[in-house]
Amino acid sequence: MLSLDRQEAYRRRYAASRPGYRTAAQLFEALLLRHLPEARRALDAGCGRAGILQDHHHESRFLVGADGDLASLTDNSRLHGRVLAGLERLPFADATFDLVGAAWVMEHLAEPQVACRELGRVLSPGGHLLILAPSAWSPVALLNRTVPGRGQAALVERVYGRKERDTFPVHYRANTRGRLAAMARAAGLEEVEFHHVGDPSYLALNDLLYRAASLMERLTDPRPLRRLKVHLVGEYRRLIP
Question: 233: which strand partners?
Answer without folding.
Answer: 132, 195
